[in-house]
Amino acid sequence: MRIVTWNINSVRLRLDMVLRLVDDYGPDVLCLQETKVVDDAFPLKELAARGYVHAHVRGMKSYNGVAILSRLPLSATGGTLWCERQDCRHVQAELPGGIELHNFYIPAGGDIPDPDLNDKFRHKLRFLDELAAWGEALEDRQKPRILVGDLNIAPLENDVWSHRQLLNVISHTPIEVEKMDAMMRAGEWVDAVRHFLPATEKLYTWWSYRSADWGLSDRGRRLDHIWVTPPLVPHLLGYTVMREARGWGPKPSDHVPVMIDLAV
Predict the structure, then answer these.
(1) Is 34 annotated as a binding residue?
(2) What CA–CA distance (Å, rounded) separates 97 from 95?
(3) Which terminal Cβ of the chain has fewer Cβ within 10 Å, N or C?
């Protein structure tokens, strides 16, 4: 089973890139974030023509939005409303073999890393606390689960271009990393990419639009993640971070797809 996650930053604006991804890499399951489209306007027809006839989408106009598209049968099992907001940041489905799949778009958090001064950052921290409580409450710890998405946190020193310079920048602040660690422990999640790539190695999935030459400056962050529960760890085959997608076309997403292969 091949699974890809990608913050596409508008699925309609970048549909050609989504189709290029599925043609080049052929994932069985594609999870998108920041689809920025209401469900009725989601381009399901175009993706069904590529074999993605199973879909579970939750979207809203212009903001947020998540989707699971699959060539494999899936059962749509909902999505939680976090922080008492109906802002389409989570969708959930069950894949063949009883694998529970969660697709998240965690709030970015704004620019000021102080919850007393920044409502967006306070929202992000609460979201992470709720995810930790949710993970703690998960039943059947032997159930295979996958969590993917734009989690908007680069937790490790080598998940950012400069640990020292970004310690006070939202996405890499100590409090965010602490809360992500708590979330991982609560759900017994394993970082599927770092399972293969040591923490000593640099790895990014996002490069700012503000950089005139993102590839040359390479000031990236690893904001996009795939986690699995322990029952799936022995089935992990490998990962791919599609760095080249940051250069697809004149208006690419600032995120790139992340992919894992599982022997299931």
Answers:
(1) yes
(2) 6
(3) C
Write down the CATH number for the domain with range 2-262: 3.60.10.10
Confirm if 60 and 105 have CB atoms less than 8 A apart: no
Contact predicate 156/201, CB 8 Å: no
Residue 40 marked as a ligand binder: no
Alpha-carbon gap, residue 88 to 79, rounded angstroms: 8
Q: Is 150 a catalytic residue?
A: yes
Instruction: Choose, from 28, 150, 159, 224, the residue flagged as catalytic.
Output: 150
Catalytic residue among 105, 123, 172, 224: 105
Predicted TM-score (pTM) of this structure: 0.98
d(CA 215, CA 149): 23
* Residue 118 assigned as binding residue: no
Please report the sign of the dihedral spanned by the C-alpha atoms of residue 205, residue 163, residue 198, residue 110. Answer: negative
Residue 116, annotated as binding a ligand: no
The domain segmentation of the chain, as residue ranges, is 2-262
- Name residues whose C-beta falls within 8 Å of residue 223's C-beta, 6 or more positions apart in sequence: 7, 150, 151, 152, 153, 154, 171, 205, 206, 255
